[in-house]
Structure formats: C-alpha cells, structure tokens
Design goal:
single chain, alpha/beta, Rossmann fold, Arc Repressor Mutant, subunit A, 3 domains, nine-stranded mixed sheet, 15 helices, about 15% strand
C-alpha cells in the first residue's frame, strides 16, 4: 500500500479534488485547524463552492482514498503531496507550487544540484549534440538533469544524462502514465527506471497545448538554475527562462557556435544579463562543484581503415553530401559511397534528409 502518512493521505484527498487549486488550499490552511478535523467535517469549508464541498464529502472516506492510491500504484505511479519528504524542496519556494505531483520512479534520486536544460524542438544536429555532451558531463559530475522530454534539445539532454549513468527527471504536460511524444516511449521508461517522470496533472490528462507553459515552471522551480540551448524568442524555452527569473533561479545561455544553430534566445538572454555557459565545466565551476576531466569526443572504432577514418573525420566537422565528401577527399564517388555504407553498418554515420550524411548522434 501507499507509503504516505495519514496526514499526507488527507492532503492528497484535498489536492486531487477537481478544481481545488492553490488559492483554495491557502484559504483552508489559514483556518488553522488540523487536516484531520477538515477530513471529518468537509462541510465546514465555507469558503469553497458548494459543489466542491459536496465532492469532498463524497470522497471523505479513508478506505476510498487508499483504494485510489493503490490503483495508482498498480500503474507504477505514486502520489507525492507537498508535505512529503520526497517533494522537491526548491519547488516549495515558487509562486503557486503544485499541490501534488504524480511520479513514476522516485524523486528521492534527485541529487543536491538539479539543473534544468531546455531548448527548441527544432534544434540543429550540432545544437543537440552539444547539449547532449553538456548533459553527459553534468550528470557524470553528479548533477541531476531536469527537462521536459520534448523532441529536440530536451530529448538530447535526457539521453546525455542517461549515457553518463546519471539521474534525469522528465516533467510532462500530460498525465504521467503517457509517454509523450510517443516516439520517446523507450526514453520514458529509461528515465523512470533510473530517475523520475513527473507531472502535476492527474493521470488521464491529455497533452493539451496550454499544459506545457504551466509545466515549465516546475522544470525551473525544482532546479538551482537552467541552461538554455538553441531556441528562438517565441519558444517554450523562453517561457521557462521567464519562470526561472521570477523564481530567482540562475539562467545560463549556451551561445551558438555555428550559423545553422538557432541563436536568437541565448543571445537575447545574455543581453539581459544571463550567464554564458559554453561547457559543463563552466556551470560546475559557478556552483563550486569539482568537475571531472571533460568527456572526450568518442573516437571511431580502432578497426577503421585509413579512408574510413578520413571520411569520419570530415563528418565530425559537419554534415555533408556524398559529392562534398568526394570533393574534400579527392576520391571517386563510388568509393565514397561504399565507405559510407561501411560506416553506417558500424553505427558511426547516419543518412540524413537531403541526401546528406552526418556523424551518428
């Protein structure tokens, strides 16, 4: 059964009531009577609409509450009310924190330095590779990487943390039982097994567009700071950065290094005084954390022949077409084509839209 205390179960009873929000909860707590007394007499909550009081009365049954919690547990989900020791301490400090979190995995795995990492869903391959590397190095140093499991930068950051054997937390804009987007189902399960997938929205909530700006305050709220990668000014990452400023969190902008990267938001943030972060080491140094030696770029398998290594090194500089590789290497297109196929089979190169090739990320 649920590991919640009796008082936490009563908090769950209140917080999971439809349309009972943070403002209502504040009014209830200001009554300065025990939660036990409120549970015994929900009708005394005169500040609540009658319909809400009736709903609370109908659910004021501890056996029923425990059945609800057990039903969640059968789905691999547990409720974390605000008073719980598992609730992220930094999140309690923000304006209107979630009254309850629904969790797959465990928030107790979150370390002393959680950092949010966000950016555009439409990131360049270079932008995703860079943020993935930063996430790997942060996680390798013991940082918990917090993001939203969206396509693009979010996905790259979660994967980087997992590759380092670190802890990462995904904050969803839908019910926690749903892997969203669906292509991240495998990632979703990997995060839940080693870190946590969380949501303030009850199970069954669809991924409505309006949910995502709301969930962004949790990404920044449970973090000491956020790192903003590739993104434009109108992106959800900007919304997360605004929350971070409001919540008195540190904001780091990762400046673009190549013209094809979307540099609009990082440039704007730096103009407004945010911290520049070109590497994980800079972020770790800011917090006074001892950084390990930077992880080196993975080198090709030692079994590569001279020409395979030459093409691979060219692709490390950026994506190219077969003809560009032939021109740069001074080799026939047929030889380049055969060698690219070998590199694909070895998992070092991938074929991209537009008849281009790139280092596999």
């Amino acid at each position: 059964m649920s590991g919640l205390t009796h008082e936490e179960k009563i908090w769950y009873w209140l917080a999971s009531t439809p349309r009972l929000g943070f403002k209502h909860m504040v009014s209830i707590l200001e009554m300065q009577i025990s939660l036990e007394e409120i549970f015994a007499d929900p009708g005394s909550l005169s500040m609540l609409p009658e319909e809400m009081r009736e709903t609370l009365k109908s659910r004021a049954d501890m056996g029923r509450i425990e059945e609800e919690l057990f039903s969640l547990e059968k789905q691999g989900i547990h409720a974390v009310p605000m008073p719980s020791g598992e609730y992220p301490p930094l999140l309690r400090e923000i304006y209107r924190p979630p009254l309850i979190l629904y969790v797959k995995g465990s928030l107790l795995r979150v370390g002393e330095l959680p950092l949010g990492m966000v950016g555009t869903r439409l990131a360049s391959r270079e932008g995703m590779a860079r943020m993935k590397q930063i996430a790997r190095e942060l996680a390798d140093a013991g940082v918990t990487v917090v993001s939203g499991m969206a396509r693009g930068i979010d996905t790259a950051c979660h994967k980087g943390a997992l590759e380092a054997g670190g802890v990462t937390v995904a904050v969803l804009g839908c019910g926690v039982e749903r892997a969203y987007p669906s292509e991240n189902k495998r990632l979703y399960h990997a995060i839940a097994e080693t870190g946590a997938v969380i949501s303030e929205f009850p199970p069954g909530t669809p991924p409505f567009a309006g949910n995502f700006p709301v969930r962004n305050r949790i990404i920044s709220g449970m973090s000491r700071g956020i790192l903003v990668g590739e993104a434009n000014e109108a992106s959800g990452a900007h919304n997360t950065a605004r929350h971070a400023y409001e919540e008195n969190r540190d904001v780091f902008a990762v400046p673009a290094e190549k013209p094809e990267q979307t540099a609009e938001l990082p440039a704007l943030l730096m103009e407004n005084g945010s911290l520049s972060a070109r590497s994980a080491r800079e972020v770790l140094s800011y917090y006074g954390w001892a950084a390990e030696e930077p992880l080196q770029e993975e080198s090709p398998e030692p079994g590569l022949d001279f020409f395979e290594r030459e093409l691979y090194n060219l692709l490390l500089k950026g994506d190219m077409t077969m003809q560009q590789l032939a021109d740069r290497s001074g080799s026939a297109a047929a030889k380049v084509s055969l060698t690219l196929t070998k590199l694909e089979v070895k998992g070092l190169v991938e074929r991209l839209p537009g008849n281009r090739f790139g280092k596999k990320i």
